[in-house]
Amino acid sequence: MMEELALHILDIMENSLAAGASLLELTILEDPVANRMIIELTDNGRGMSEKERQAALDPFFTSRTTRRVGLGLSLLRATAEQCGGSLTLVSQPGKGTRVVVTLELNHIDRPPLGDMGATIASILSREDPPEVYYYHQRGKEAFEFSTSWLKEQLGDIPVNLAPVLKWVQSHIDEGLKALYGGE
Amino acid sequence: MKSVEDLLKLKKEIQESIALREGGDKIKVVVGMGTCGIAAGAREVMSALLDELAKRRLTNVVVTQTGCIGLCAQEPLVDVFVPGKPRVTYGKVDAQKARQIVAQHIVNGIVINEWVVNK
To answer: Percent of chain A having pLDDT more than 70?
Structure first.
């Protein structure tokens, strides 16, 4: 259903925005030595009570009025568990939410990372784009992207214009390509 | 189209085109980005829309998104709002159709009836 980790990431970022977040911090760590991949998304949304937090992982629970949760988190958890890892959800009302996913890096069932550039460009394509900070480390090399840096470059040009978003997409894709060993 | 120099060049270009278009009402395109939409290919639709708009340097169009609206079987869904005209909802959109929507509906103002789901 979700053929790329980047699609799962887009999905949980959408959850964050639906919960009123204006800041998304995404960290992806790939440790080939420990055979571990960690994906961590932290937001400043409205957070969840313990009851909501547990319900959020239940695929048969949906809060139709707010649409804050649905199948997305359970799908991602299933993927993580299938790949020798887990999904942890940490949240408190008023204190945002953190999703931590671990997977075995070379597990045969692990979906590829996929198009992170398209994911970040998609999340920014809205009338009021959130602040995004993305840090990706693979072994000793790292790539980072932030909307605060982008805004500094752009000055009075809005982030959510198609040509700017296409630039963001190729910038991230090229950066990650370099991380994976060149062109 | 990836280095910082490219970005600054782009910035200059946009500054010029925005100045020309200021004041006009914007066309709004909304992509369904719920779990159902994403699983059905909404991100590729979004990418294709942005690419087509960027190529045509159409900065008077806003592309935004919404969650699940309960029409999951028709995802990916794309709404087009042209100022002064009723909303048009396209269903089962893919990257190819998204590019057509930009060319026909947004640029030429012709609704592609066979893909419309809210007739």
So the answer is: 93
pLDDT digits (tens, 9 = 90+) for B22-55: 556 789 999 999 999 999 999 999 999 999 999 9
Q: Which residues of A touch B68 (CB under 8 A)?
A: 67, 70
B residues 20-59 closer than 8 Å to A (CB):
31, 33-35, 38-39, 42-44, 46-47, 49-51, 53-54, 57-59
**C-beta atoms of A125 and B64 within 8 A:** yes
Contacts of A127 in chain B (CB under 8 A): 62, 64
Residue A53 domain boundaries: 5-179
Q: Which two tokens stand for residue B26?
A: 């914007």
What is the spatial order of strands in the sheet that B78-81 belongs to? B61-66, B27-32, B78-81, B88-90
CB contact (8 A) between residue B54 and residue A7: no
Q: Please give the ipTM for the structure prediction.
A: 0.88
Q: What is the CATH number of the domain that holds A32?
A: 3.30.565
Number of compact structural domains in chain A? 1
Whether the predicted pLDDT of B64 surpasses 90: yes
Task: Read off the DSSP letter of residue B104.
Answer: I
Of B6, B3, B73, B77, the C-alpha closest to B46 is B77
User: Do residues A179 and A141 lie in contact, with contact meaning Cβ atoms separated by under 8 Å?
Assistant: yes
Which residue did the predictor score with more confidence, B16 or A149? A149
Sorted by where each starts, the structural domains of chain B and their CATH numbers stand as 24-115 (3.40.30.10)
